[in-house]
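Sorry, any thoughts here?
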Amino acid sequence: MARASGVRPSPELGYMTRIFGARAIALGLGYLTARGAERSRWQRLALLVDALDTAHGAARLVRGDLPRPTALGYTALTGAYMPIGATRLARDLS
């Protein structure tokens, strides 16, 4: 994904990829192993993380401190997760 978006591989990029991968695994495992109200809490937490990631990406787009295609692509990616998560949460709560 980094190559496709024009980001050059580096040790720092590898480290950051592992951090965010670990976060995604933790959120997924928390959700999958939770029951009842706890599962809803994990859904809300994941939705919050997606919203924060998207807001940060939008801020980077506005500031213009990343190449526009890269910032737009990553913001669109995390932005796509938000309606999916919100729809699932709304369905589960009703």
Q: What stands out?
A: The helical segments are 11-33, 37-63, 68-93. The longest helix spans residues 37-63. The chain is about 80% helix and 0% strand.
